[in-house]
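FIELD: query
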Amino acid sequence: MDDVHAPLIEDLTRRRGVVLLLGAADTGKTTFARQLLGAAIAAGKRAAFVDADIAESTVGPPTCVGLKWINDPADLDDLARADRLQFVGSIKTSGLVLQQVVATAALVEQARSEADLVVVDTSDAVSGVTGQTLKYHKTELTRPEVIVAFQRGEELAPIVGMLRRFFGADIEETPVSPRIISATPHERSADRAKHFAAELAPPLQAWRVRSTVFAPTLPAGLDPSRLDNMLVGLQDGTGATLGLGVLKEEDAILRVLTNHGEGMRGLRLGSMRIDLDSLAVTPVRLREVMFGL
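FIELD: result
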């Protein structure tokens, strides 16, 4: 365990409830989460990890918020396999605050009802209107008992001040560990592609889909070719996400390629296209896809 954070982790292990982690990129939030979860189960607690970092996912694939039950040390070695998913539909924060907040709140609420300690990792969006709005509403709906803010200089001062003013959570400011090594953009992209590759590993099954199974609903007369290579979340009919799929159009017939077709009740359109060969992603606007606007 990192000596910088050992006293804080020891303190948090004695508490119950939700611990929300805030920090910019490369501040060690995920490393801290692993250490805290390990300490919690060593202390005999049932723990849960909610990963709300949709771009740099640890639990489940990118574009999703994932929940992982942590019952023993083996679970910490298998974080990629989510116990429950909520589809957000993009790796970008801008324009998707509502989807991210709802997805995170839903999984935290489930985890809170069954775990002694729930650790919530968040994205690196901590500045500007979008970052502050996202963190405000996540705090509002997840109702954390403790917020851990990983400070590098004073970059979190505005958001920490805002959260202290509006919410009653105990906010613990802590320095970034000197052991943290920053990742390059290329390394981040390669890691994201690795996670997409695991989720969309061939051979993918092709399921023919009707225009009536989508959310949002497709407009009448939409050319199905406009949906080619769109990323979708496969829904089970209870509000949970089974996994990811990719739409393919051929001869005006639309199919979804996926490893999660069994139990599929509907498809949620994301805001990205993905190339299954390179696993490169491209953001799109749904209004442009559907209406050309």
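FIELD: remark
The chain has two domains: 6-175, 200-291.
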